[in-house]
Automatic annotation (TrEMBL):
BP GO annotations: negative regulation of DNA-templated transcription
Region of interest (Disordered), ranges: 241-267
UniProt keyword DNA-binding present: yes
Protein name per the record: IclR family transcriptional regulator
Ranges of residues in domain HTH iclR-type: 9-69
Organism from which the protein derives: Pseudonocardia endophytica
Length: 267
């Protein structure tokens, strides 16, 4: 991702974010677009209507929007990320079986987090599928966990020229807290009504590029379960590292999935 323009056109940027998501093959509803972009439902509807008018999107019978015939959907058959997603799915399913909550696999791309996979809880009230969504990394639990594996200097360079972060000092404090805890949180910041917890994989370079997160409806979340959730997320991240990431693990120190840090953590 290049440097953000000095005078970004918000309407163009919003349209490009929606197109990027639709190009993955994901479907979007008006409310999801409003939440993704931080705009009202009426504005989201006008944006989608404009994309439909120009054949970049179309609305299905379920009223969800998908890529139109002018927008090529990426063929993921030979995509390394798709292979990674498939290899990571068994660990995500185990996490959902253990917690009965929805799990997500995320990848960090520049200043954004892309949701690669979702395994939904079987409960009637649950956090829904986010596959294909693209959200600012500093607002997402897994994104915060991945950013926290970077040095402060690298984070400053990443957000240089960006207007996404209104207060860089606040972001730095947030990441320091994430480093101390070993996990990221998102309490109804990107969508109302749910709590998200995220843990980054160890990674194989200068910082983590993947994360696992858990979405829990806010009414069902109980603080006394935090330690259990974080431990399960860490075990899942370790399993994904073992099963899906490139095989240079023998050169990295072993990771203790139950390292100290979550016992006294609070949201």
């Amino acid at each position: 991702m290049g440097r953000a323009p000095s005078y970004p056109l918000k309407s163009v940027d919003h349209a490009l974010q929606v197109l990027t998501t639709l190009q993955t093959g994901a479907t979007l509803r008006v409310g999801e677009v409003a939440g993704l972009l931080g705009i009202g439902r009426s504005s989201a509807h006008r944006l989608l209507s404009a994309l439909v008018y120009r054949d970049f999107a179309e609305q299905g019978v379920t009223r969800a929007y998908r890529a139109g015939h002018r927008l090529a959907v990426h063929n993921t058959a030979h995509d390394p990320l798709e292979q990674f997603r498939l290899l990571a799915l068994p660990a995500l399913r185990t996490l959902v079986d253990d917690t009965d909550e929805t799990a997500f696999l995320q990848v960090l791309r520049g200043r954004d987090v892309h949701f690669l996979a979702t395994v939904e809880s079987g409960q009637a009230v649950r956090v829904g599928d986010r596959t294909g969504l693209v959200l600012p990394a500093h607002m997402v639990s897994g994104g915060r966990a991945m950013l926290a594996t970077m040095s402060d200097e690298d984070v400053v360079d990443l957000y240089s020229g960006s207007r996404l972060v209104a207060d860089p000092r606040s972001l730095r404090r947030t990441l320091e807290e994430v480093r101390s805890r070993g996990f990221g949180t998102n309490v109804a910041e990107t969508a109302s009504g749910f709590v998200a917890l995220g843990v980054a994989t160890s990674g194989d370079g200068d910082h983590a590029r993947f994360a696992v997160s858990l979405g829990v409806p806010e009414f069902r979340y109980r603080p006394e379960l935090l330690g259990q959730y974080v431990s399960q997320l860490r075990h899942t991240a370790s399993a994904i590292e073992h099963d899906a990431l490139p095989a240079d693990r023998e050169q990295r120190p072993a990771r203790d999935p139950d390292r100290a840090g979550d016992e006294d953590a609070t949201l």
